[in-house]
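Human: I would love a firmer grasp of how sequence relates to backbone shape in proteins. Could you go through the record with me and say what the backbone is doing? Here is the record:
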Amino acid sequence: MAQLMRSPLEERLKSWHGEVWHTTRGRIIRDIVYAIDSGLITTVSFLAGVSVSLVTQNRIIVAGLIQIVSGTLAIFFGSYISTKAQKHFFENQIERERREIEELPEKETQEIRDIFNEMGFTKEEQEIAVKRITADKERWLEFMVQEEIGISPGLIDNPFEIGFISAGSFLLGAVPAILPFFIFNGMALALSVSAISVLVFLFVLGTAKSRITKVHWLVSGVETLFIGAISCGSGFLLGRIVASYFH
């Protein structure tokens, strides 16, 4: 099965750099940052909107919690479905390559020569590589999958894992936006503290992200804060305008 393939690229990266983020799994930071940012922006924008229409703070909290739960579920199932579709696509590509090795070995052997020829290997070196690679069909499959169609087994994510990570990240992002409404009395004060909390959290998120991206922590923090502030401000303003229109 495709999901049982070894990933020599994963092992090399982990061995050379000693951190899981240096492997192809490091791209999961994209899902985490996206989900956290979504939780922050959608929650504060929603709260800004309903604070115009709902009279009591308790109703705002209930509405906010409903929005967070629905958003968390949407992120989970959206991530699960999209990751599962990608997983099926990758596995089908790998299985197709497996069939071609069995049914069209000469064609696949020539493709190995073509790959090494593009890398500048001589004819003699190409033949040595062909003999080594085709001596083991699993090694042959791994090589063709990675070099011909560009798929590493490490790219095949678990849909449930990505779903839970994305949903958890969304929930984490929503907390700073709604927490002030549990602590402070007065909608105006709670909303102001919520907005400030979101901005602080965005900066912290940016600096934390720099440990993985290796961008300077201040640059990463300010960039994330600036982009997030524009998104939050736009959503906040839109929520106010729409809610005022229907009020």
Q: What stands out?
A: The CA atoms of residues 199 and 229 lie 7 Å apart. The chain has a mean pLDDT of 82.
